[in-house]
C-alpha cells in the first residue's frame, strides 16, 4: 500500500549516499 513511499525514501537515501561517497571513490581510483 505504501510501497511507493518506501521506494522514494530508499531512492533519496541512496542518492545522498552516492553523493557523500563520491569523493572517496574518486580519490581511491587515482
Automatic annotation (TrEMBL):
Protein name: Uncharacterized protein
Amino acid at each position: 500500500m505504501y510501497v511507493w513511499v518506501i521506494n522514494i525514501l530508499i531512492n533519496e537515501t541512496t542518492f545522498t549516499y552516492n553523493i557523500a561517497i563520491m569523493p572517496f571513490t574518486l580519490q581511491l581510483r587515482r
